[in-house]
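To close the section, here is one more complete example, presented without commentary so you can practise reading it yourself. The ligand is adenosine-5'-triphosphate.
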Amino acid sequence: MTENKKPVFVTGDRPTGRLHLGHLVGSLRTRVVMQDSGKYESFIFIADMQALTDNAKNPEKIQDSILQVALDYLSVGVDPNKSTVFIQSQVPQLSELTMIYMNLVTLSRLQRNPTVKKEIEDKGFKQSIPVGFLCYPISQTADTTAFNANLIPAGEDQNPITEQGREIVRSFNAIYGDVLVESNNVLPDRKAALRLPGIDGKAKMSKSMNNCIYLSDTTEEVRAKVMSMFTDPNHIKIEMPGDTEKNPVFIYLRALATDDDIQQFEPEFGTLENLEARYRKGGVGDVRIKKLLFNVIEKILTPIREKRKYYEEHIDEVIDILEKGCEKARAVAQETVTKVRKAMGIEYFQDDALRKYSLRMKKTNQ
Ligand code: ATP
Ligand code: MG
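Output:
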């Protein structure tokens, strides 16, 4: 199957808005490092079909976000010469695989998926869950298996989805033979990056929750958002001891700051550990840690904004990248679809399949 080939990674994002710091630390950084290592074949896609599962009545939002996400990709270092960048809906093979895998999953298993369960709750679907939404772990399995993905760089919320994907692969292979490849998530190294909270302190920074710092935010937007962030509600005066563990400002610093950043912006402390220790003891104000965080974020976003500006001014280049990526993705996915169809015995007009079935029919009729 994939012998003698580089391992493959596949990952995507829903075009439901622009990408944010959660995406950066949860998945974008990992995929760019993996891409640049030259050790992997990489497929990175804009999951518009998945975005439509809970936005069917709002297609403009999805349409408008396609280029936004593409610009975010290119601005953080996704390189179309190294990665295939494509749009999910332009690869109809993925829908075919989804349809096939649907027969291998029960409704109750989908309803038990913890990520799906939580998202249904967050989105307030109650009893009106779009069938397509409930099935998104299945379509995600189509996305990964179509390209023989071994690895999926993603945030922690994706673990239950990938686990369900492996179950589908095992079911398929057990019935039809060893065709599909199982994938595993590659989580970020830093614990704080597994699931970056929102600026409102909620469990996850998420486009749908309106609690994000976007990669394309301006300096002034970043400043206003950081300055409005939650800290430790009990840390009222500078000299009071404060909590760092659940404090979103420190979680962001743990997810984003480097030793160099602390030495540059807070030479008095030199390391984040020292700063945290002092905050816990008392003597460090919230404005000070927010200013540090603002500087750290600005240092990260400045080159990203510059690259984004270039591509915004060369949008035809971006469209061209996507079109070529879709073409390549279709070709690779088609190889898998053909293998799957053959394994299932539904590639009727190849290898004389129908004729063989007619002989079998005669035999059973005898
Ligand atoms: P939506 O609200 O439309 O679901 P989202 O903000 O949750 O959007 P997705 O497109 O669902 O973003 O997620 C894409 C990838 O980014 C996934 O791998 C996910 O794990 C990762 N990711 C998203 N938000 C975060 C976060 N706050 N922390 C870490 N990783 C994240
Ligand atoms: Mg999401």
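Once you have examined the tokens, check your reading against these statements. The chain is about 55% helix and 5% strand. The mean pLDDT is 96.
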